[in-house]
Amino acid sequence: MTSAPTAVPDTTEPVAAVRYYIESFNKEDPKAMAAMCAVPMSILDGMAPHVWHGPTACEDWYRDAMTEGEHFGVTDYFVTLGEPKHNNITGESAYVVFPTTMTFKLQGKKITQSGAFFTVALRKLGEGWRIVSWAWTKGTAQPDAS
Questions:
Q1: What is the mean pLDDT of residues 3-32?
Q2: E strands, 73-126, where?
Q3: Which end of the chain is more exposed for a tag (fewer CB within 10 A), N or C?
């Protein structure tokens, strides 16, 4: 896990805030992820307990995801966002939906989850766009043919 502080990028566009959040996840940097989250924050995910809400929702979800991954032998998570299917901005609110692919290793075997979606609601705050809620819609996970 990265412990050095990461400079928060310019988030004058909602998509930039989401991309930074996912880049921070890929770098295993929950503090940088949390920097992109509004307080309070809500997360809806396919992993139990399925809902995280409150001032530490980002950090709590990350901790729980890594704990569950460790339990099942999952490592090397990497999320790739496609081009947004929706990028709707209304005043200080935004709704962005990305087609998403996630790769990871399950007990050493590379798995690709394709056909997933990352749906995000954001608010424009004084410091830029911040995520107020996100939901992950699972795709289909299959072992790589390599």
A1: 84
A2: 74-81, 86-90, 93-106, 109-125
A3: C
